[in-house]
Amino acid sequence: MVISLDIQRAFDNLQLSSIRNSLDKLKFNSKTTETLKDVLENREVLLQTSQGTAAWSQQKGCAQGSCSGQVFWNLVANKILSEKWPPNIHLQAFADDFVFVVAESTRAKLKSAAQDALSIFKCWTDKHHLQISVEKSCNILISKLVNGPTIKWNNVTIKRQQSLKYLGVTIDNKLNWIPHLLNTKTKATLLYQNLSRIAGSTWGLKKEFRRHLYFTVAERMILHGASAWAYPLSSRQQRILISIQRKFLLSISGASRTTSTAVLQVIEGILPLHINAQAEATYVRNFPQKRIPTYKQDGYFYRWVQNRGENRLCPLRIPKRTNYSSVARQTE
């Protein structure tokens, strides 16, 4: 089960006292800590009225777009993130977007584990005077269970959905990533329509500029989060990616609409999107482990590189008697 929690105006409602307490617990240079505390002192809001200037003390809030706002929020959120959760419970966060991943073998155990995790999280939010928006929170059940457990926050049921969006990636309850690719196809179609208004196949931008826009804008948007949904790719996913890429290939080449997609890819020297997606997923998954970021196809090894905005698979020349681990060390 995946539970997404939305905190109401997290940065605006963050208490300055919570930030000060978090700074006190830091084992850091005292002068730096005192400097950060000085930023929080004597904060007032002034408002010019007909009767003069009105002022009141500011006790909460750190601007989300400020340089120090994210740092202050991370100091407070680090407490709940560093909590010793059971092995079957994982808490993930990016800024104020929190997601619980809970795994259990039965419905009763799943409900108990999820509610226990939410109880601990509620203690943290109550301590820092933060509120959860139940209307914007949701959960999905990734299981073959017909009826999953009902999860509640403060006696209010958290709605269950077939999919949820987190950091630009749509996670569905079947983990086939089809809803994500369909949403991506809609955005890519809108992008293609906007591009068609300023550049046609025979007018507007030059061919090299249309090609550059494809690699730097369209392809980057389509392959967002590929390390999660492109490993491995199903045949249906490949068909969706090819249909997305075809529109841009026609715009770049200026060819007839009856031209096959494979021919367009060969003429323009552009790799199929599903190969680029698999290559990027392999690269991202292998890089943290210090392995050689390669992609194997037709018995040959390729390395995914990005050069001048273009993603390419460059063949690796590996001698027959060369140890694979030694090649990995050379490419790090």
From TrEMBL:
Transmembrane segments: none annotated. Residues 1-171 form the Reverse transcriptase domain. PROSITE patterns: RT_POL. InterPro entries: RdDP_mobile_element, RT_dom. It comes from the Eukaryota. This is Putative 115 kDa protein in type-1 like protein. It comes from Argiope bruennichi (Wasp spider).
